[in-house]
Structures are given as structure tokens and as C-alpha cells.
Amino acid sequence: MSQEIVRQAHSEAEGIRAGADDYAADVLSKLEVEVMRTLKSIRLGLDCSTTGAPFPRSLEDTDGEGALDEYEESEGEEEPIRG
Hints:
The protein is mainly α. The protein is about 60% helix and about 0% strand. It is built from 1 helix and no strands. It has one helix at about 1-50.
């Protein structure tokens, strides 16, 4: 009986670890999107400061130059980060 309890505990622990890994991957993916969005804004600001061009009102105002189109943005609702 004790071996069955230990087996069940190991199985449950593996499930918890897998869930934690999935959650961490999801949080990191969302963080990556936000960091890339911030990086786009920084690059655009640097470009504007060196060329004298006005900074656009929103990131959607820019395209065609590749500065803000280099990375895909996520779709759907964002969950709050718990930690």
C-alpha cells in the first residue's frame, strides 16, 4: 500500500511540475511580447531623435520601414501576471 501512495505522489508531483512549466512558458511569452513592444518604441524614438522626424502618436501609425513591423504582437486577452 505504501508503494501505491508513493507512486501516486510522484504522479501528482509530475502533473504539478508540468503545469508550472506551462504557466512559466506562457508568462515568459507574454513578457517577451511586452519587451519587444518596448524595444520597438525605443528604436523608433532613437530614429526620430537622429532624423528629426516627429514621434508618431501611436505605434500603429508606423509601417513600411520595418522598425515596428519586425515582431508580431500577440492577440487576445492578456492575463495578469501572478507571482
